[in-house]
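Reminder: ligand-aware prediction takes two inputs, not one.
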Amino acid sequence: MRPNLLNPLFAALTSLSGVGPKLERLYRRLLDNEAPRIVDLLFHLPSGTVDRRARPKLNEVVPGTLVTVAVTVDQHRPSPPHRARAPYRVYAHDDTGDITLTFFNARKDYLEKLLPEGELRYVSGTAELYDGMLQMVHPDRVVDEAGFATLPLVEPVYPLTEGLALSNVRRAMESALGKLPDLPEWQDDAWLARERFPAFAEALKSLHRPAEPRDVLPDTLAWARLAFDELLAGQLALALVRAHMRRQAGRGSASEGLLRTRIVDALPYSLTPSQQRALGDIITDLALPQRMLRLLQGDVGSGKTVVALLAAATVIEAGRQAALMAPTELLARQHHNTIAPLAQAAGLHVAILTGRERGRERGDILARLAIGDIDLVVGTHALFQDEVAFKDLALAIVDEQHRFGVHQRLALTQKGDAVDVLVLTATPIPRTLVLTYFGDMDISELREKPAGRQPIDTRTIPLSRLDEVEAAVGRALDEGQRAYWVCPLVEDSEKIDLAAAEARFAELKERFGATVDLVHGRMKGPEKDRAMSRFAAGETRLLVATTVIEVGVDVPEATVMVVEHAERFGLAQLHQLRGRIGRGSARSTCLLLYKAPLGETAKARLAILRETEDGFRIAEEDLRLRGEGDLLGTRQSGLPGFRIARIELHGKYLSAARDDAALVMSRDPGLTTPRGAALRHLLYLFEKDEAIRLIRAG
Ligand code: ADP
Ligand code: MG
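Here is what comes back for the chain with adenosine-5'-diphosphate:
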C-alpha cells in the first residue's frame, strides 16, 4: 500500500483547479503518461527561465532585450474606427524618455483599466525600436505598485507541447507545489550534509520557483538531489529484485546436450567463438541450483537468437519449458520464423502467442502450455497475461531492446518456479550504463559478427542530392538487389510522419513501379507482416518504411539502406537501422541523407557511423557526444528511462547510489527501520513500487 502521505501527489492532475479534461489531454502528451498525476507534473523540470530583472530607465533600454520599466501612462490612442487591424497604442514616459505600448486586437475598456492615464505602471516585455521610437508590443506583464511587489522577476520556462500555454503550466505547477506534503527524509543524513543537498521538497521548490536563472540548471544541487533520489530508487529496486531472486533457490536444469547438438547440426553455419562462449556461460548457469540472471549483449546481427534457442533447448531437455518474449509483434513473428524450422529439426514443440492469436487457436495454445505440450513459446507481452500458465517454466528469455523494464521481466518470472532469466539486448550499452538498467547481472557479449559478412559502405549525402540517390537505388534494383528506404519520425506528429512516408512511397512507386512497397506503424499486424514477407520473398524489392523496421527485421538479401533525415535519428537508432543490411554475403551500402547545414554534434555523429560498425564503440561515442546527442534512441537529453538524472552530470552519483542501496539491503532488507520506511516513499515516488511487493513476497 502506498503511504497515505503520498496521496496528494498521486491525485490526478485534473484535481488541480484550472486543469480540466481538455487540458488533461495536452498534459498527457506533455508528460508522456496516460493518466498524469501531480507528481508527474512536479517532475517536469524547467528548461530555462525568463529573466525580467533588468530595470533600466527608458534611455538605458537596450532594444531587443527583456526589461521591466516603471512608466507613467500618458495617453491612449485606440485603433481608428473601421481599421480594426491597426494597433491600439498607449503612450507612456519616465523622467528619461518615452515609450509606446502597442496592442493588436485590443479591447479598449480592458486596456483603460490596465493602463489608466496619469498613473504609474510597471511594464515588462521585450522593448524594440520602431521608427526610431522605443516600443513594446504586447507587454508580458503590466502591474501596479502592489502587483510589482509580488511579481516574480525570474520565471521558469518549461518544455511544452502544441496547444499548451506556458502560463497554464506555471499556474498548475504553483498549485502542485502547494500539495507537497512534509515527507520523511530518505537519504542518509551524513551523505546529504556532505553533498550539501537540499531536502526533496526544497529541491522541487527551488527548481520551480527560481530566484535566479541559474537556479533551474541541471547542475544545481537541487537538481542533483532529485537525480540522486531517482538513481537511488532505481538501484534499490534492482537490489530488491536481485535479493528476491536469490531467496528463491534456483533449480538446476542439467542436460547432456542432445537437443542442442541436433539444433547445431541443423544450422547451415557454425557458431562463432563468442556465441560458443556465451552459450557455455548460459549452460553453466542453468545447471547450477541458483537462478540465472544474465544479459546477452550483442550487436544487431550478431546472432543472439540462435544462442537463445540453444539455451531454451537446454531446459527443454531437462523436461521443462522456455518462453521468449519480444517487444513487438513483428519481432516475435520473426523470432518464431527463425526458430521454428530449427526447433522442428530437433523435435521441439514451438508456438507463438501474441495479441493476434484469438479464439480457439488461443485456447488451444494456452491448454497445451498448461499441460507442457509446448516446449517453447515465443510471444509479446501477451505472454504475461494472467490466463497464460505454464506446466513448468524454467527459462524466461526477454528480447528487450529497451522497451521492457524491470516490471515486465519480473512478470514473466512469476509464471514459474525459480525461473532463470536471460535478457537479450541489441543495443550495446556502455558498461557504466549496464549497471543502471540491469543492476548486478552477469554479462555475456557477442562482439564479433558471424563469418562471411562484408563491411557496409556508409555514406552521408545532403538531401539536395536526392535525385542521385534515387538513381543509385534504381541501379541497385536493376541488378536485382533489395533496398530499404526509411522515412523519419518527427516527435508529436505521427500524422505528418506518415504523410511524408506515403508521399515518398508514391513518388518512388511512380519511378520504379510495383516493386515498391510501404510499411508503417499505423498498419495492422497482419498487414505489416504481409508487407514484410513480400519483401523477404523478393516479391517487392524496395521497402519504404517508418522506423517499424528498426527492430530485428532480418532479410539477408537486402543490401541497400537509405535513411532520410538521418540527422533526426539517434546514433543508436541509425546503427540499428544499418544493421538491417550487411546480413548476407553481398556488399551493402548505407546512404544517410541529411538536411544541410548540419550542426557540429550532428556532423560528429554521422561521421562516427561512417567510421565504424562496432556497436559498442558507437554507444561509447554516443555517450561522449551527449548533451545534444541522444543515447539509445530516446529524444530527451536525460538518461533513457530516467526523468531527472542526466548521465553527463549525474552519472558520477551512480556508484554512490549503488553502494547506498547495497548498504540498505544488508542492514534493512525489509525496509522496516525509520529510514527504510522513508525509502518506501522514495520507491513509490519513482514508480518502483513493484519492488516493494517483492519484500513481502520474499
Ligand atoms: P541478432 O538477434 O543478434 O540481431 P540474429 O540472431 O537475428 O541476430 O542473427 C542474424 C543472422 O545471422 C540470422 O540470419 C542468423 O541466421 C545468422 N547467424 C547467426 N549466427 C550465425 C553464425 N554463427 N554464422 C553465420 N550466420 C549466423
Ligand atoms: Mg535477433
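The CA atoms of residues 268 and 342 lie 10 Å apart. The longest strand covers residues 66-77. We will return to this case in the review session.
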